[in-house]
Amino acid sequence: MLRKEILSYVKKEYGTLSEHLWKSYPEYEVLRHALQPGEKKAKWYAIIMNVKRETLGLKGEGYVDILNVKCDPEMMDLLRMSEGYLPAYHMSKGNWITILLDGTVPLDNIKQLIDQSYCLTAGAKEKKKKVRFGPRDWIIPANPKYYDVIQAFEENEIIDWKQSSDVRVGDLIYMYVAAPYSALMYKCKAVEVDIPYHFESGDLTVKKVMKIQLLNKYEPDHMTFERMKKEYGIYAVRGPRSMPNSLKEELNAYEGEIGNHAKHN
């Protein structure tokens, strides 16, 4: 079932159709980037395989579906400490990781790692021409040390924010506010993007900004970093990242509870 969900996701998100490259391994499905001008072969960004459990050092008999993806080395050790992740099977263990497709790892987490692998293996031209289908949902960090986002939203419904390269008009942005809050605190919508801007201060350089509109606020103690890590597998928010559907659904339910409570008071 997870195999089917993954193939549906990459077709919708990246226009990828899987390839069966080996007659002797009909269950193996390779996921590639689109072939770019000047390239003879398109790069892989994932492969689904069906492997004996004992070959992977797992208990039990029979076969299990696995997914190999390229991974940020900073995340590799953390993931390997979690159930459902293994050193890459038949690929570089320093850059790739194996994910069990037996239901141990939530589909939302798998999609995030597929997105990361796609970006890590894409060429410069492809990153610029990356095709997207419909709006996306993002988690974007805000550091109060550099900018008082809380005060900004107290004073304005729409604020300027540093442009994240792949955010487009209509995308939803869930803003994670760093210490001392360390929590998801705002839900916004990108209403204008790619606005030329120039700012330099220390390590921070801003060349473009986007306008984001505040849609909802969350109490700092509701979706803390510890809860995000424990319940949704989000171990770091260092830059823009995809929003897990399960987390989005939880926040939507929370917004509904707040709305119902307001009506009765």
**N- to C-terminal separation?**
45 Å
Please report which band the strand proportion falls in: under 5%, 5-15%, 15-25%, 25-35%, 35-45% or over 45%.
Answer: 25-35%
What's the overall geometry?
Answer: globular
Unreliable runs, pLDDT <50, ≥5 residues?
Answer: none
- What proportion of the residues is helical, as a percent range? 25-40%
Rounded radius of gyration (Å): 20 Å
Main sheet makeup:
6 strands, mixed
Strands, count:
11
Instruction: Write down the secondary-structure element order.
Output: HEEEHEEHHEHEEEEHEH
Please state the structural category.
alpha+beta
Total of DSSP H or I helical runs spanning 4+ residues: 7
Strand order of the largest sheet: 7-10-9-8-6-11
Mean pLDDT: 86
Protein architecture, described:
The chain is an alpha+beta fold. Helices cover 29% and strands 31% of the residues. The chain has seven helices and eleven strands. A six-stranded mixed sheet has the order 7-10-9-8-6-11, with helices on one face. A five-stranded antiparallel sheet has the order 1-2-3-5-4, covered by helices on one side. Strand 4 and strand 5 form a beta hairpin. Helix 1 packs across helix 3. The radius of gyration is 20 Å and the shape is globular.
